[in-house]
Design brief:
57% helix, six-stranded parallel sheet, four-stranded antiparallel sheet
Length: 419
C-alpha cells in the first residue's frame, strides 16, 4: 500500500494566483472530484486539499494515474488549454515522496507563509470529506493521525507557530487588539486584502463590510465568507459607519486624505490600517482628532520578527517530521505481514476449537470456561514469537521469507483473511 500512494500538486511554488484561482475547489467540487475518481479508476485513500495557495490530490493505486487525474481536474474546471496548464503541476509518483510532501504541507513547511496556522484545519476538512465518502482506508487514517500528532508536537515543542508571520495575519491580530467587536471596512481586494478577509472570517465576533472597485470580485468573496458588500461609490458613508478601515488599494497617491476626513465631520473614533505600497492613507489623517493610523511598516516589522523565529525552528520541525515518517514507515511495513498474521491466528484458532469440540463434551460450564481460558492463553503465547519475528523482519526488509515459511508450514493460502 505504501508504494501505491501518489499525488499531484499545484501550488504557489510553481503557479501564479491567477492560475491557482482557476483550479481551486470548494467542498462540493472536491467531493465531486473524489467521486469521479472512484467511478473512473481503481483508487482508494483519496484526499483532496484545496486552499487559496494550492490544489492537491492524493490517492492510492497500483498504477500511476497522475496524468489522467490532472487531465480530469482541468476538464472539470473548464480549462481549454490542457497542455499549458499541465506544466504547473508537481507529480509525486513514489510513496515515500508523496508521504513526505503531505507531512510538509500539513505542518506548514510548504506554505507561502512558513508555519501557516490555517493549514492543519484545512487538511482536517479534506480528511473529513474523504471519510464522509468512505474513501479513507486504514492507510490514510493512520497517515493523517500520525500527521496530526506530529503537528501537535510542532506546536508544543517549537516556536514554529508563534506570532503572525504574514502581513495579513499580523494585521488581523492588530485589529483584534484595538477594540472588542469592531465594525471593519476592508477597501481593496488584492491578494493582501483578500487574505485579511479570509483571516477575519475565522473571527465570528467581527462585523465586516468589503468594498472593491470591481463589484463582481467583492460579491464573489462576500458569498464565500458571508460578509456584507458595499459599492465603491458609497465609500464615504461606509467610512462614517466603520470603526476600523483597512486599505490595500493600489494607486500612485493617497486615496484617504485629511480633506476627506474633514468632510466627514462628526465622525466617531477611527483607526486606519494602511497595507498599501505606495501608501493609500495620507499620514496627515492623524491630524484629525480621533483618527489613528497604522502603516504597513509597523505591521511588517512585527511579522518579520515572527517569521525569523519560525525559520529558526525549521530544523526542529524537520526532525519531528522525520521521526513521524519513520514511525509511519514501520507501521506501513507491518501492514505487509498483517494478512499473514491474521491467517496464522485463524489457523491456530480453528485447531483450538476443533480439539475443544472433541474433548470437552462432558465438561461442566465452569470447567469449559477454564479450558477456554487456558487454551486461548496458550495460543496467544505460541503466536507471540512468530508475530514479533515477522515485525522485526519487516524492519530488516526480510519479511517475505518468513511469510513463505509460515504459509508452507500452516497451509495459510487456504485461510481467509481476517481484519
Amino acid at each position: 500500500m505504501y508504494n501505491h500512494f501518489k499525488s499531484i500538486s499545484l501550488s504557489h511554488r510553481n503557479a501564479t494566483l491567477t492560475i491557482r484561482e482557476q483550479l481551486a475547489l470548494n467542498e462540493a467540487e472536491a467531493k465531486s472530484m473524489m467521486l469521479r475518481l472512484k467511478d473512473f479508476f481503481d483508487v482508494s485513500d483519496v484526499l483532496v486539499v484545496s486552499t487559496c495557495n494550492r490544489t492537491e490530490i492524493y490517492y492510492s493505486a497500483s498504477t500511476d494515474l497522475n496524468e489522467e487525474i490532472i487531465k480530469m481536474l482541468l476538464i472539470q474546471k473548464g480549462v481549454s488549454d490542457l497542455e499549458s496548464f499541465k506544466g504547473y503541476f508537481e507529480r509525486f509518483s513514489e510513496g515515500q515522496s508523496a508521504v513526505q510532501h503531505l507531512f510538509q504541507v500539513a505542518t506548514g513547511l510548504q506554505s507561502q507563509v512558513v508555519g501557516d496556522m490555517q493549514i492543519p484545519n484545512q487538511i482536517k476538512h479534506a480528511y473529513q470529506w474523504s471519510a464522509d465518502l468512505n474513501m479513507a482506508g486504514p492507510f490514510l487514517h493512520r497517515l493523517l493521525h500520525t500527521i496530526f500528532f506530529a503537528n501537535k508536537r510542532v506546536a508544543q515543542e517549537t516556536f514554529f507557530r508563534d506570532g503572525a508571520a504574514s502581513i495579513s495575519y499580523a494585521a488581523v491580530e492588530l485589529l483584534e487588539g484595538l477594540m472588542p467587536n469592531p465594525k471593519v471596512l476592508i477597501v481593496g481586494l488584492g491578494e493582501i486584502g483578500a487574505d485579511v478577509c479570509r483571516n477575519l472570517a475565522q473571527r465570528e465576533t467581527t462585523e465586516v463590510t468589503i468594498v472593491n472597485r470591481s463589484r463582481d470580485k467583492a460579491d464573489k468573496l462576500a458569498e464565500e465568507l458571508g460578509f456584507r458588500v458595499a459599492d465603491f461609490s458609497d465609500i464615504e458613508a461606509e467610512i462614517s459607519g466603520a470603526d476600523i478601515i483597512v486599505s490595500s488599494i493600489v494607486r500612485d497617491e493617497p486615496f484617504f486624505t485629511k480633506e476627506m476626513m474633514v468632510r466627514l465631520r462628526g465622525m466617531s473614533f477611527k483607526y486606519f490600517v494602511d497595507l498599501s505600497v505606495p501608501r493609500s492613507v495620507s499620514p496627515e489623517v492623524e491630524e484629525i482628532p480621533g483618527v489613528m493610523l497604522y502603516t504597513i511598516d509597523s505591521i511588517r516589522s512585527k511579522a518579520d520578527e515572527a517569521l525569523h523565529r519560525r525559520l529558526e525552528a525549521v530544523p526542529q520541525v524537520r526532525e519531528i517530521i522525520d521521526e513521524a515518517v519513520l514511525e509511519f514507515n514501520d507501521w506501513s511495513k507491518e501492514m505487509i505481514v498483517s494478512p499473514t498474521i491474521q491467517k496464522l491466528k485463524g489457523a491456530l484458532e480453528q485447531i483450538r476449537k476443533e480439539e475443544l469440540t472433541r474433548f470437552t463434551k462432558n465438561l461442566s460450564d465452569s470447567e469449559l470456561e477454564k479450558v477456554e481460558r487456558i487454551t486461548t492463553s496458550m495460543m496467544q503465547k505460541i503466536l507471540k514469537l512468530p508475530v514479533l519475528q515477522l515485525k522485526a523482519a519487516c524492519k530488516r526488509g526480510e519479511a517475505e521469507t518468513l511469510i513463505d515459511v509460515l504459509n508452507d508450514l500452516f497451509n495459510l493460502e487456504k485461510q481467509p483473511e481476517k481484519h
